[in-house]
Write a structure and sequence with these properties.
The structure holds two protein chains of two kinds. Chain A is of the alpha+beta class. Helix content of chain A is 27%, strand content 43%. Chain A has a four-stranded antiparallel β-sheet with strand order 2-3-1-4, covered by helices on one side. Chain B is an alpha+beta fold. Chains A and B meet through strand 5, strand 7 and strand 9 of A and strand 1, strand 4, strand 5 and helix 2 of B. Strand 9 of chain A pairs parallel with strand 4 of chain B, so a sheet runs across the interface.
Chain lengths: 175, 166
């Protein structure tokens, strides 16, 4: 298993039903295996970031996917990666941020949190509300490398700017 | 005492429904001692259920007393346990000795009332909350062939939790 070759496949294009089925079928038929993946509809597009284990070359993998990607009008990008399964980091904090949408929220919040030791493992954000009054919502799971208190002080700074932010610790129960 | 082998999913025994304990004898006591040792041998393990070591009987142990700032009742030996009341719900992260290298979010009741026998067959009632209540619900699921994988919820449900608990 040590010599497995991994690639990161990125596929982006206009959303429509059946994308995942078509892509993964082509990969399966071509002899590739899937690892961890994130697939999501973003603003009417469908996005796939997927670890793929494949014994052949970069070019051979491209040939397996490019036909189906083209037929679905998806942009395809492949990188050979230094990747492994079973490398999960367990998050210890969850932070939720929301507020009236305005330029710079993410930069402000993540910049402040990064200075106080937050390692982001997972971030999802969305814009809700209405077109004339959009609200920005962000959920982060991460590791507090300098402790939770440091992050709490960072969130204080963020709140002073009128952004709602709350944090809870994640205490993973192993049973 | 000895450390027992932990079954890993997809071992089909983890999906079986366990049977009630009828005999409260020395063999049961010996098994409980082994089960406890197995729980303590696992990294960070605060609970264990008999099906996790392949014994399909309604036996579990929970002990969260080693966690700082966590309300607890010490070591709970649960034989034929039953939850009689559920209150509130909260999302929390769980992992399982039978499902290595994966943790995920699960919604559990925040407070529960529990009716259970001990290793000698005497009945007890407990009111549990928070982390301890979560651990008990996780272990009792094992007795019904359920893993936390059966109850995963998405991160997106955090802000707008639907009232579903089963």
């Amino acid at each position: 298993m040590a010599s497995q070759k991994w690639f990161m496949l990125t596929l982006v294009g206009k959303d429509r039903p059946g994308i995942v089925a078509h892509i993964t079928t082509a990969l399966f038929d071509g002899g590739a295996n899937l690892g961890e993946a994130s697939m999501m509809r973003l603003g009417g597009n469908f996005t796939i970031m997927m670890m793929v284990q494949f014994d052949g070359t970069h070019h051979a993998l491209e040939q397996i996917v490019e036909g189906v990607a083209e037929s679905l009008d998806l942009h395809l990008h492949i990188d050979a990666i230094e990747g492994h399964l079973h490398q999960h980091l367990v998050p210890d904090v969850r932070i939720t941020v929301y507020g009236a949408d305005r330029a710079g929220i993410v930069a402000k919040v993540t910049g402040t949190l990064a200075e106080t030791g937050l390692h982001i493992l997972d971030l999802e954000s969305d814009v809700g509300g209405s077109e004339d009054q959009p609200i920005y919502i962000m959920q982060i799971e991460g590791h507090a490398s300098e402790g939770v208190e440091a992050l709490e002080s960072a969130l204080e700074i963020v709140r002073k700017e009128g952004i709602e932010a709350h944090m809870e610790t994640i205490d993973t129960m192993i049973g | 005492m000895s450390v027992l082998e932990i079954l890993h999913y997809p071992d089909p025994r983890l999906k079986e429904i366990s049977k009630n304990v009828e005999e409260f004898d020395s063999e049961l006591h010996q098994f409980i001692a082994d089960l406890e040792e197995t729980m303590r041998a696992g990294p960070g393990g605060v609970g264990i259920a008999a099906p996790q070591v392949g014994r399909l009987q309604r036996i579990a142990i929970v002990d969260v007393s080693g966690k700082p700032k966590t309300q607890n009742h010490g070591k709970l030996i649960l034989i034929n346990p039953e939850i009689t009341e559920w209150h509130g719900m909260k999302k929390g992260r769980e992992g399982c000795m039978s499902v290595p290298d994966f943790t995920g979010n699960v919604i559990r009741a925040e407070k529960i009332k529990l009716k259970t026998q001990d290793q000698d067959g005497a009945w007890h009632e407990y009111e549990l909350e928070g982390f301890e209540a979560r651990a008990v619900q996780h272990e009792l699921d094992h007795l019904d062939g359920l893993l936390f994988l059966d109850r995963l919820v998405s991160r997106r449900s955090d802000l707008f939790e639907r009232k579903v608990y089963k």
